[in-house]
Design goal:
Shape: elongated
Order of helices and strands: EEEEEEEEEEHHEHEEHEHHHEEEEHHHH
Helix content: 25-40%
Number of helices: 11
Mean pLDDT: 82
Distance between the termini: 47 Å
Number of strands: 18
Radius of gyration: 23 Å
Strand content: 25-35%
Low-confidence stretches: 73-98
Structural class: alpha+beta
Length: about 375
Amino acid sequence: MTRIDLTGLAVRPAQVWGGVRLVPLVRAEPVGGLRLHREVYETADGCVDVGDGTAYTSYIPHGFVADWSGTEREEAAYGTRLGDAPPAAVPVRAPHHRLAKRRRGERRLRFLPLNLALEGYLSLHFGGPSVLWEEWSRAALRRGLSPRAEAAYAGVDVPGLAEALRIFELHPGQCGVLVYTADALAAAFVVPHPEDYRLLHPTLVEDLYGELVHQYAYYGGPVPGFTARIRDGAGGIRDLADLRAAAREQERRWAVAHDGLMARDLLETPYAFERVYRMGSFALYRFLPPFLRDGREQHIGELITDHKGRTAYLKTFRLSDAQVRRGYLLRRLASCDWHPGRTAEALGISRDELVRRIRAAGFGVLLDAHGLAQAARNAQEG
């Protein structure tokens, strides 16, 4: 599996409020055997104990429970906050894979929405240099990228989003939505059943959104609404059946245009998937993009697929250009065993430019000034 498969989900005409566009996703039939509920948290400190004395600190709006037991139980949810002022910081202390926990003796899995995906991004090459070349400090080898943090915005702070979610009506069979700000894809959200979506629709305003999404919503102007023009061409519109067929043709054209243009980067990008947990015939994954610097959107996220690879649950987070650059730089460093000379050569740049990029990415604390100077002298003497 390398791409997101939205087979079984159909696009409906967009609903627009100012600069926010919501594109509904509907299913003809719900995904059988899986339901998604919300989780109650007794504390609101934003800190989750993942075992072995390690804590993962994050903004936690709510938790999800994936239920494949068939009992159809539901739970209430209460939002929690990490501090009072946005943006909410999302630091991780160590790369762990225990943010998804199965309840003892139950066919239910608890996980934190988007935190699986963010932890996967934050733990990218978390250990730092694998070899202590002279340019890296000893602290870099001991601590790696710890602590590592990224900033995000709560949905309530994305201009227009809360109002859009409040006023828009849900479609029959709606199981998901694609959220756009200034017609740039901000997030995708998919659940297995329409009743799950009806329950979880309000939580979109509590979710995390990237800095770029907030900027687009804040500075972007209103976007055009969906309009359909049915012309009385050859043959004409003779009755309601003809009118219905013409309207459905307009919806089909909208869906083709949307998938081929607006959602193209999300659907066509090849991702690296990591399975976090298997739940009977379902599997929970998180995924990372290839960190290509070609101007395309880059999303991280998590999803649950059935035995055919179809998406039952999906939640994505769009990375900013700076986050993409950091991921790209870490990937290139790791592929060259963190050797600055070989990395600079692979990138087609000088050592000095590589050092500048490392510092600009916020990784300058890993560098050793004495080692950099010695490496520069060695290069000159060589």
